[in-house]
Amino acid sequence: MIWTTMQEIRNGIDGAIRIGETEVTIVDAHAVRSRAVDDLIWTAVFATDEAVKASAIWLIRATACAVGAIPSSIQGLYEAMARGDAGGFTVPAMNIRGITYDVCRAAFRAAKAKDVGALIFEIAKSEIGYTEQRPAEYAAAVLAAAVKEGFVGPVFIQGDHFQAKASSYFKDPVKELDGLKTLIRDALDAGFYNIDIDSSTLVVLERPTEEEQQRDNFEVAAAMTEFIRGHEPQGITVSVGGEIGEVGGRNSTVEEFEVYMQGLTKALPQGMKGISKISVQTGTSHGGIPLPDGTVAKVKLDFQVLEDIGAVARAKYGIAGTVQHGASTLPDDMFHRFPEARVAEVHLATGFQNMIFDHASFPADLRARVYEHLKVASAKERKDGETDEQFLYKNRKKGFGPFKHEMWSLPDEVNRVIMAELEAKFGFLYAQLRVNGSSEAVAKHVVCPLVMPPRPAGL
After folding, report:
1. Mean pLDDT score, 85-101
2. Second label for 122, Cα 20 to 30 Å away, from 161, 195, 208, 219?
3. Residue-level pLDDT at 287
4. How many helices and strands, by DSSP H and E, does the chain display?
């Protein structure tokens, strides 16, 4: 149900949640999980009245905190991994582009089954746009899923690829970075206490030295890190990620990493905590490389890059290690190698999207309407010589926003079988990345102060 007024919200939570000045009290936990949280998240996503939407989002966050699912920074765990006090696993960071509440529920169910605490839910700057999920809405969906599935512990929500667009930056850097700062503020307010600053888009390989090539990258990363430190909530150290190799470009080197880190360290105010991990390029591309028939080309991933840079990152700079992007379409027999190479974090997105669109139970008429829409709305994205299969594979992610309500409204029997397969996939990935049983390490090393934004006036 989508509540449309404040009174409907009050009536809907009556007997389940009691609203206080700065927090809520759970009156009936069963009522919260069986009905109230479902209606709250549908209201948070689909209500047309902004005050009603904001109130539903606040109530979800307050309810999650009340039951022990608390937005947190993974900084403490990553510092422990850098010291060698924790590890042996690679943290999955999962971009959920559509049907977010139900997909996150599947991820939490798989996590609870194997005592997984080290997992991240993230959304990239570009995804926020084309999936029509602002940070507050995305965080609400993640937290509502945690409440629904009874997940207790730190909930890590991350801003992925918060990046500067090179053409805009070099034309007007102040305007471009002001826009990035606004996004960061929105994310922090929503409970994103993990943010990846991707200024690798600003690397200029035509410059004569690696320091000059990386200069705009590390200077912008330092400026954004300083901005985050100036706005993070009291008691929370946001986990900030950096990036040296734009995904899809040439493979990264230890030398590039050293130049970046030295420049970043000099550019940060003395004593200010810097990044906790570094994203590098190893041969992958986001979503994989579609062939003319729509299948994905095999990728030769250079694990040595991950291992070599990660070793220097931990030993010399005290950060957790490397991050691998664009991994969800890799062969299943490759994932166990990430923890073997001591990779700190791996980002997974398109594979989950593919499981939804390509599932035999996904309504054929809805898929056809999404594809017809994209042929018009994304026509400018089509490259010369590209087949329909290649074009649609690369662009169907942009169907999640315009068709959000229909995606969320799949028939129960269809939703059930798709989510069951996603849950199994999450469970497989957790096992391969060795995060099963990681709740103990998270509890030991992660501090999660309770941060609640002001209660909306209407409540």
Report:
1. 98
2. 219
3. 47
4. 20, 11
DSSP single-letter state for residue 384: T
220 in Cβ contact with 199 (< 8 Å): yes
Helix residue ranges per DSSP H, 114-204 = 125-130, 135-149, 166-171, 173-190
* Alpha carbon distance 392, 428 (integer Å): 27
Maximum Cα–Cα distance for the chain, whole Å?
68
Phi then psi for residue 252, to 5 deg, are -75, 160
CA–CA distance, 69 with 72 (Å, rounded to integer): 9
* Tokens linked to 58: 């606040």
End-to-end Cα distance, the chain = 19
Distance CA 249, CA 221 (A): 19
3-state secondary structure of 28: coil
Report how far residue 369's alpha carbon sits from residue 178's, in angstroms, rounded to the nearest whole number.
Answer: 37
Domain ranges of the chain: 6-67, 69-356+410-445
Q: Can you give the length of the chain in residues?
A: 459
pLDDT digits (tens, 9 = 90+) for 291-317: 465 555 566 788 999 999 999 999 999
Question: What does the alpha-carbon distance between residue 221 and residue 237 come to, in Å, rounded to a whole number?
Answer: 16
Angle (nearest 5°) at CA 263 between 213 and 209: 30
Q: Are 26 and 32 in contact (CB under 8 A)?
A: yes
Q: What is the C-alpha to C-alpha distance for residues 387 and 88, in angstroms, rounded to an integer?
A: 43
- 3-class secondary structure, 387: coil
- Beta bridge mates, 373: none
Q: Which fold has domain 69-356+410-445?
A: TIM Barrel (3.20.20)
Indicate the SS3 state at residue 451. Answer: coil
Distance, CA of 313 to CA of 335 (rounded, Å):
21
CA atoms within 13 A on the CB side of 307: 9
> What's the rounded Cα separation, in Å, for the pair 369 and 131?
16
Whole-number Å distance between alpha carbons of 119 and 155: 8
In 3D, which of 225, 251, 237, 71 has the Cα closest to residue 144? 71
At 406-430, the pLDDT tens digits run 999 999 999 999 999 999 999 999 9
